[in-house]
What we know:
Strand 1 and strand 2 (about 30) form a beta hairpin. It is elongated and about 75 Å long. It has a two-stranded antiparallel ribbon with strand order 1-2. It folds into two domains: about 1-155, no CATH class; about 160-320, Serine Threonine Protein Phosphatase 5, Tetratricopeptide repeat. By secondary structure, it is mainly alpha-helical. It is about 70% helix and about 5% strand. Helix 8 packs antiparallel against helix 9, helix 12 (about 225-240) packs antiparallel against helix 13 (about 245-260) and helix 12 (about 225-240) runs parallel beside helix 14. Bound molecules: adenosine-5'-diphosphate and magnesium ion (MG).
Amino acid sequence: xxxxxxxxxxxxxxxxxxxxxxxxxxxxxxxxxxxxxxxxxxxxxxxxxxxxxxxxxxxxxxxxxxxxxxxxxxxxxxxxxxxxxxxxxxxxxxxxxxxxxxxxxxxxxxxxxxxxxxxxxxxxxxxxxxxxxxxxxxxxxxxxxxxxxxxxxxxxxxxxxxxxxxxxxxxxxxxxxxxxxxxxxxxxxxxxxxxxxxxxxxxxxxxxxxxxxxxxxxxxxxxxxxxxxxxxxxxxxxxxxxxxxxxxxxxxxxxxxxxxxxxxxxxxxxxxxxxxxxxxxxxxxxxxxxxxxxxxxxxxxxxxxxxxxxxxxxxxxxxxx
Length: 321
Ligand SMILES: Nc1ncnc2c1ncn2[C@@H]1O[C@H](COP(=O)(O)OP(=O)(O)O)[C@@H](O)[C@H]1O
Ligand SMILES: [Mg+2]
């Protein structure tokens, strides 16, 4: 999301229109939808710039191909944009659509934008944002949140060698967006994802620094569901630094938190990490016992990555003396 600000008459509109004359993103030309905030409405009409932008989009060359998608995914928007002939109106305006709450409108629009931008990037340009209505601001924040979350989750799936720097950049930008709109939800999880990418890229110190930030947020906000994983990752990075005693403390902390929360998957990961450390300390029997105990708790999902990894380690611990 880009915001162009400056005094009246400075050339903001001209500047943006200049860019939009040939909008290319990643070598692909974009569709453009323009909406204006109006001084006359001065913030009273909910979503007016979005409604105008979607209306313009439907009337553009791309319109006919988008009509079906918007009808399907964003019906509450569609009925406000396209005047409906009286005889059809009962069909389209079902009770659901009438009741379209703001939450629903937001969800619908996000789904529609996600779908259309799969085929071609779409630029939404809102001019004269100083007259924006509160619903539009709320919707913009929602979309920023939505895009940032989607970007982080996509980045976390990039696992080809050499892709971690790309993932790190994407996650960092998304975290900055979330911070800018004041959204802190799931931040510890996202920082943990970031730490994993740093680990893959061999950037141990950077990884530790984001994990410490995650722990600070966990303790301040009580958003604890990934606390065990944060401690475990911290332990893994400390192992790399040769700080085995501190690493062990982190693994024990991770195991303790996971047990307290009844989170068996995180317990398995933390015990696997500790067992791997024990293996290097020539304490194989202890490692095997603790890992076998948690591994045997699981009766299904044995083909998932974490359980396969635990199984492989158990086999090593059983055979190598
Ligand atoms: N780079 C520029 N050089 C000369 N004139 C400009 C330039 N950019 C904009 N203008 C002129 O300045 C006026 C105000 O520009 P506009 O883009 O409408 O400003 P804003 O949107 O910031 O209020 C317009 O008449 C425009 O043609
Ligand atoms: Mg202007």
